[in-house]
Specification:
Structural class: mainly alpha
Membrane topology: Multi-pass membrane protein
Mean pLDDT: 77
Subcellular location: Plastid, Chloroplast membrane
Shape: globular
CATH topology of the largest domain: Growth Hormone, Chain: A
Main location: plastid
Pfam families: MFS_1 (PF07690)
Order of helices and strands: HHHHHHHHHHHHHHHHHHHHH
CATH class of the largest domain: Mainly Alpha
Strand content: under 5%
Protein name: Major facilitator
Number of helices: 21
């Protein structure tokens, strides 16, 4: 230590005694209950301290991270009696919007958004291609539903296994393998369609198997990179890409098909996925502390804020164990998430798979315009999802409980779409119908700040498996809804009746979630009696 500096600086012990002599309420000093430990910590770390008493007011401030006086003395103010040094919240202030949006963690969220955009674009291509394929092969509406649901056959088997792999190996590696496999399946779909119907169904099922790991990986990466006060925003960014993927797939597919044939979009989207994998592996890390580009301030902020909510293990687990499925399923909060995911998937896939056909069947809109009418709501959903996440984080920062915040978000995310679907059944023109559909899908995005973030909160150590369980239930519901819609329309002759049924299910799911969900961490390690 520089002697000149030492002459003007009291020792840590005397500084602390001087500090103790001031009459500050004990409630302001949560970190100073053990004075001996505090003094020893000062002496050990040699934190730069500068103390002056120009008036009866005193301010002490610690400058962390360096013992070099060249960093500058810590300024002392006599304008107030604020003790900023002894509160980590004051030392690591929340970043501004500009700092947040340019941070390394947002770059990770942006890469996740691109992956989920490709994920959904690869799904919805078939929603557009199914119309000319059905005409060329003479498929009925019920059989078209079976072809579209073949994706879900594969999606049914992978979420639990994929979630377990994510918990063990982390989101980065599993996501890379997932994107590579689903891009390969998309790229090979034209070959499969020309070969046989069974080859086409198998390739769509492989797409589902690979895409089943996408959302568990997203949740894992968000939990590792973002503190609890920013997670809803991060999920909003990532899921915004998911919804934009729907819009991109629905709008570009008809254009690409008109220029390069029915299978043009499959080839282009498949090649785009391979490019994403190369960037992902070279530009991101599985955890913040392994990132070479992150600043010390951002790393300290993430680790400090994250530890206040729960500890996330940054290392892959060495011992492979079977997840405690019985204990997970013995708690009602788990079932609230399962029911929420099931209803979310039912509504999502019914709208995603059938809306182009709905506009074509009910309003006699041609394929290209039907795709546009179906794409607009997904673009709105991307924006609404981020705004919902921002509002959710602000509610928590303002002191609202996590439980209340999640229930509010989920209520909007289910009751809102249910009411909008009722309005959709009354629409007399495609423009009014598109407005109702846009409202339904936009409000649906509030679910991302409800059950989707809630998965990380009640069981951070089992978030991948829990997401897999709820996704499996969601896939069952999606298969039932997608196939059931086709048979319902054939039997009843009306899309409107199926939309009313979906609205009723939305209302019931909202009630169940509000009764049994929680934002608190649930103890899944206690044995089931």
């Amino acid at each position: 230590m520089d002697s000149a500096v030492a002459l003007h600086r009291p020792s840590p012990t005397s500084s602390f005694r001087l500090f103790q002599s001031r009459k500050f309420p004990n409630t302001h000093l949560p970190k100073l209950q053990n004075s001996t430990r505090f003094v020893e910590s000062l002496e050990k770390n040699r934190f730069p301290i500068n103390v002056s008493r120009p008036s009866s007011l005193l301010r002490i401030r610690l400058r962390h991270g360096s013992d070099d006086p060249a960093n500058g003395p810590v300024k002392v103010s006599s304008n107030d009696a604020h003790i900023g040094a002894f509160s980590e919240e004051k030392e690591l202030q929340a970043p501004s919007f500009a700092e947040f949006i340019t941070s390394e963690r947002v770059k990770v969220a942006a890469m996740l958004a691109l992956a989920l955009a490709l994920c959904n674009a690869d799904r919805v291509v078939m929603s557009v291609a199914i119309v000319p394929l059905s005409l060329s092969h003479g498929w009925s509406k019920s059989f078209s539903g079976i072809v579209q649901s073949s994706f879900l056959w594969g999606y049914l088997v992978s979420p639990v296994a994929g979630g377990t792999l994510v918990d063990y190996y982390g989101g980065k590696v599993v996501m890379a393998w997932g994107v590579a496999l689903w891009s390969l399946a998309t790229f090979l779909t034209p070959w499969a369609a020309e070969t046989s119907l069974w080859a086409l169904l198998a390739m769509r099922a492989l797409l589902g198997v690979a895409e089943g790991v996408a959302l568990p990986c997203m949740n894992n990466m968000v939990a590792r990179w973002f503190p609890s006060t920013e997670r809803a925003r991060a999920v909003g960014i990532a899921m915004g890409g998911f919804q934009l993927g729907s819009a991109i797939g629905l709008t570009l597919s008809p254009i690409l098909m008109s220029q390069s044939g029915i299978f043009g979009p499959f080839v282009i989207f498949g090649l785009s996925g391979f490019l994403w994998v190369l960037v992902w592996l070279s530009a991101t890390s599985s955890t913040p502390d392994r990132n070479n580009q992150i600043s010390k301030y951002e790393l300290d902020y993430i680790l400090n804020k994250r530890q206040k909510s729960f500890v996330v293990d940054n290392k892959p687990k060495a011992t492979k164990v079977i997840p405690p499925f019985r204990r997970l399923l013995s708690k009602m909060p788990t079932w609230s998430l399962i029911i929420a995911n099931a209803m979310h998937s039912w509504g999502f896939f019914v709208i995603l798979s059938w809306m182009p056909i709905y506009f074509n069947f009910v309003y006699h809109v041609d394929l290209r315009h039907a795709a546009w009418f179906s794409a607009v709501p997904w673009s709105v959903m991307a924006i609404m999802g981020f705004l919902a996440g921002l509002w959710s984080d602000l509610l928590i920062r303002s002191g609202r409980s996590i439980t209340l915040t999640r229930k509010v978000m989920q209520s909007i995310g289910f009751v809102g779409p249910g009411m909008a679907l009722v309005g959709l059944t009354t629409a007399k023109s495609p423009l009014i119908a598109s407005a109702w559909l846009t409202l339904a899908v936009g409000l649906k995005s509030f679910s991302h700040s409800g059950f989707l973030v809630n998965l990380q909160e009640i069981a951070p150590q089992y978030s991948g498996v829990l997401h897999g369980l709820s996704n499996t239930a969601g896939t069952f519901a999606a298969i039932l809804g997608t196939v059931g819609a086709g048979f319902f329309v054939e039997l009843v002759g009306s899309f409107q009746g199926f939309l009313l049924l979906t609205a009723l299910l939305y209302f019931l799911a909202a009630l169940f979630y509000n009764l049994f969900s929680t934002g608190e961490r649930v103890n899944f390690d206690e044995p089931v009696s």
